Automatic annotation (TrEMBL):
CDD domains tied to this protein: PRTases_typeI
Upper lineage: Eukaryota, Fungi, Dikarya, Basidiomycota, Agaricomycotina
Keyword vocabulary terms for this entry: Glycosyltransferase, Transferase
Gene3D superfamilies xrefs: 3.40.50.2020
Protein known as: PRTase-like protein
InterPro entries membership: PRTase-like, PRTase_dom
Superkingdom of origin: Eukaryota
Coiled-coil regions, chain positions: none
Amino acid sequence: MSNENQVKHWHVTYNNIHNLIRKNCSKIAVDFNPDLLVAIGMSSSPFTCHRIRINQALGFFPARVMRTFLREATTKKTLQIQAIGLSLYEPVEGVAEEKIAEEVIRTQWLGAEAGKMLLGKRVLIVDEVDDTRKTLSYALTELKRDVETELLNRPEADRDALRASTKFGIFVVHNKNKPKLAELPEGTTYYSGEEVDDVWLDYPWESTDIEEHDRLAALDVENATAATKKDV
Ligand code: 5GP
């Protein structure tokens, strides 16, 4: 494979993530002031199986860090973190012609009381990265569906007010600047810690050797700085 065809990697450290969340939390506390965090997560790392790449979201760590900063930025509010598990199944290169369905699979959800839990709350969905946006779009649509289901149990006269008092927002640590394959409804509250190029981000929780991971992260910064200097 030539260099041009290789996916560019960028190593992200725990400290990078922590600081990106810190930078955003005072604004989120004032503007959105969430009542509940819904972390998108899965327990294992991305892998390829039967020529289908399975991308697994991991918003647990960012959500937990966010809770610490939101507590500082609010009246010591201790936010509940709920978890949903989603995996994005997509064909890997060369199998598109086989028309394998690309879809987001639920591996964990909020339980039978999901709608009750969400209704009337300001819910912030948290994930580590917005890549194609399919995962976030799916999560938002399905959580809203749970709210609509719960509204059917409420008196018709109360439904509009209850619906209006239920707000959803999104926080991702990184948003990749690239054409997205799914859309979010216009006006969706959306925060990203950082806008990044379309590179493959290596997260620290995927590493089995954190010192080596941090060394590679420092090297990425060094190389990027050297490349910028060469350009000027
Ligand atoms: P989506 O394409 O739906 O926006 O992202 C699906 C999932 O793919 C993300 O939640 C994440 O787990 C995984 N993913 C996408 N891009 C990257 C990346 O650059 N690095 C890592 N580690 N995972 C990614």
